[in-house]
Specification:
alpha/beta; Rossmann fold; 5-stranded parallel sheet; 10 strands; binds phosphoric acid mono(formamide)ester
Length: 313
């Protein structure tokens, strides 16, 4: 098996250099059988406790971090903000202090605030193992890693790939982390496509081609990553009409025909069928959506191992 990289915290893709990102992807690839439950669990993290601190809803990320920790032999504590003392006014930092005082080892944090995970990292210092499981619009580094792994498994090295990210770019931490990671890995070409109101000014990067129409952005693409409209991050009344959005921006089989013949479709989930993606595409032969989910467990195992394995620090 490939060696375990060493990492103390993963708050954003900026915490990774190219060698560490590649080492995490190689390690995740090597862990796939265990991650998929097809090989026995490991005991690498026996005696360690991982806390899932989720202040925002999640299915994939929360469950896959829990499975990843268990398949490495760790104990898992699942914290749910809505049934916790957060509802009585306890802050994120005081919640962390409370759980840390119980002898826990690593923290996986999701929060609706863009800066919450970075602020927590600054407050607790660099020696506490911490992973960002999605912070507002800012970052979702393990999603970007699992997306990159899925691309490499399907299409090989990223250097020849054209990747088109389409949908609500403005509110997407997935888009931000993917663009950072794919640039770090040396992707061939990056495109973002959205209606003008859903583009992001902070992603005004000359290395990223911006499109305000879907069809030209799909032309010849090797990877098409669809993103849902993040209504929860929009002002009331600011959401586009779902049917109108689908008419102009929905990924359909007819539109996908413009992409390369071998093109794959990714989506971080949850999908909104008939809005950003048609069921015929989500369930079709090019869809790698469930492969992404499976890779999520492997990538999160690799990250937890890197944070907690008893390697020299
Ligand atoms: N992709 C992703 O983060 O999904 P969840 O919100 O279900 O965790």
């Amino acid at each position: 098996m490939s060696p375990t990289p060493v990492l103390r915290q993963l708050t954003d893709i900026d915490d990774l250099d190219r060698a560490t990102a590649l080492a995490l992807l190689d390690r995740a690839q090597a862990l796939r059988e265990v991650a998929g439950g097809r090989a026995p669990a490991l005991d690498t993290l026996a005696g360690r406790t991982v806390v899932n601190l989720f202040f925002e809803n999640s299915t994939r990320t929360r469950v896959s971090f829990a499975l990843a920790a268990r398949r490495l032999g760790a104990e898992v504590v699942d914290f749910h903000a809505h049934t916790s003392s957060t509802a009585k006014g306890e802050t994120l930092l005081d919640t962390w202090r409370t759980l840390h005082a119980m002898g826990t080892d690593a923290f996986v944090v999701r929060h609706a605030d863009d800066d919450a995970v970075a602020a927590l990292a600054a407050a607790i210092g660099p020696d506490v193992p911490l992973v960002n499981a999605g912070s507002g619009r800012r970052a979702h580094p393990t999603q970007a890693l699992l997306d990159a792994l899925t691309m490499r498994q399907c299409l090989g090295d990223w250097s020849g790939l054209t990747v088109t990210v389409v949908g609500d770019i403005r509110h997407s931490r997935v888009a931000r982390s993917n663009l950072k990671l794919l640039r770090l890995l040396g992707v061939g070409a990056l495109r973002v496509a959205a209606p003008a109101a859903l583009h992001a000014d902070d992603l005004d990067d000359p290395a990223v081609q911006r499109f305000e129409q879907l069809e030209p952005a799909l032309a010849g693409a090797d990877v098409v990553m669809a993103l849902r409209v993040q209504h929860e991050r929009m002002a009331q009344g600011g959401s586009p009409d779902p049917a109108a959005f689908h008419a102009d921006w929905g990924l359909t089989t007819a539109r996908l025909a413009r992409a390369a013949p071998h093109a794959i479709v990714l989506h971080p989930g949850p999908i909104n069928r008939g809005v950003e993606i048609a069921s015929e595409v989500a369930d079709g032969p090019r869809s790698m959506i469930l492969a992404q989910v499976g890779n999520g467990v492997a990538v999160r195992m690799a990250v937890l191992e890197a944070l907690l394995a008893p390697a020299p620090r």
